[in-house]
Predict the structure.
Amino acid sequence: MLLGLQNVTFEFGARVIVEDATWHIQPGDRVGLVGYNGTGKSTLLKVLVGEYTPSRGSVEKSKETTIGYLHQDLLSFDTNDNITEVALGAFERIRQLEKEIEQLGHDLEKDSENEELLIKYTDALHELDVLDGYNIHHKAEEVLHGLGFSNEDLERPYKEFSGGWRMRVLLAKMILQQPDVLLMDEPTNHLDLPSIEWLEKYLLHYKGSVVIVSHDKFFLNRMVNKIVEVYQQQIHIYSGDYEYYEQEKLVRIDMQQKAFENQQDYIRQQERFIERFKAKASKAAQAQSVQKRLDKIDKIEDVKLERPDLRINFQLEKVPGKVLVTLKEASKNFGNLKIVENAVAEIERGDKIALIGANGKGKSTVLRMIAGTEPFTGGERVWGHNVEESFYAQHQLEALSLGNTLLEELQSAGSKKTDVELRALLGSFLFSGDDIDKKIKVLSGGEKARVALAKTIVSKANFLILDEPTNHLDMHSVELLAEALNKYEGSTILVSHDRYFISKTANKIWEIVDHQIKEFKGTYKEYTEWNERMAKIAAEKQKLGFVEAKAEAAAQPVVKAETPAPKPQPQNNTIINKELQKELQKEQRRLSNLETQISKAKEDEQRLADALGDPTNYSDRNKFVTIEADYKKAKTNREALDKEYEQVFEKVMELESKS
């Protein structure tokens, strides 16, 4: 065991977070720590690292275990150092050795015969080599690049970056430290999709143990081999990924509910016996005995699902025309930074679009351009008929009326929903009970964001523009929001780094590529599958290009350097040379024939590759399967010809060198 809780009880005042909880983190564990908002997941991490002390029980840790802890409070850290220096802080001993070696080098320049200095210098160099100290700059740059930083960023001061990018730097530092146990509280919150995918690949090969608090189901499903759930002040452990946990939890809840009902039936039966016979002299002793047994029984808890539900129907007051928004030759740049240039796109009635891509590509800028809050550098946006839009972004928090209660703020959206419906909606956004009567001005930033999102969703708009709507929601609330948007009869365009949410809500994918808006008509899953196929095809094309280059090289006349006139050779050498020439000519003809066949095979493969890449074929499954089978045959044929060509090519080269 590396780290764990043994019979731990922890309370905040009168509120119990966990009671008599035991959990051991073993080598190789990749744990998803889950639970509804407010159940104490982040608190539990603080108990593990010793920031909080349990009321009862103990936190167990071996002396050698090192812990890395990524949490939101780290953002208070500040420095003038550049981000590479901050990341290199992970290599504390190596940086110390570098300073020692530098100082020893200076000392040896003054006293080169000092044997003691020379031994220290040699030992320090050896330790630096053992610790792989010569590669730390390369490692730091590799991790920072993976998390989305450019070469130009590496020398920029840490304090110049926003909170999200600072968190990436601190994540890079922690990754480079390679602790035995990584505790990560919402690590994907500040990452874009490419950075999340990079982090996934890194952590999948990480040798230490990892504990992750995250609301990203895709991330957890790929990352974890165990789920630890905080539920009703207890810890429940499931061996498997998040999908397995969801299935097993339903089974466990069903079993608990049946056990509870059976126990209640038994208790009622025993209580009837006690009530009937407690006053009867001949049965009183027996009734008392039954009462004692009931008093000692371990009561099974009733199953109470600690989660809100959403039952709201979204009805549009106005039905828009077929086309809601048209971008015509849209261009936007900030100085030398180009976002889009002469981009053309349309949003049609019924579209549910996810705008994806790496940070810095301008996704939020494009949303603001569509919403009309960001001016165009060139081109225009044209609204369709009867379009009523509602835009959710972080700056929308400023538009909330601070004096309103939560309920009053939703009533002001003009949706004509009943108070019961509005309370249900607020419940799904993690507001319940007395929360609903709070004033907006007393809410935290995250709470205000949830109110603004609820207000956007409940508005009478027929077109929703949403920028990172899941940022302050737990898993269940993300599911409820996805369900709400699927019921919503209007059109949506959204930016989100939550792949589960995108996969549940989008029927089209937009991506900013080369300053243009590229559209894929299909779900996120279909888009990723298509993208993977395109990557494979591109790799094959690159391979084809290499073979073609070889063929061209073989077709070029061989220019030999001038050499002295050969001396007369014996007669038997002349006979051998003639035979070599004859064989060479034969292989050259064979090579020429293969070139023709490869050229034809490449055309066939290219034609089928293009067909595979055509979204219209991709959407027709039967047609796609046929094309894919033909493509595989063409590829196999071309690869066989390539292999034969390489063998003949090498033989021609060998014969030419002998002739």
Residues 527-558+570-658 form one domain. The chain has a mean pLDDT of 83. The chain is about 50% helix and 20% strand. The CA atoms of residues 162 and 467 lie 18 Å apart.
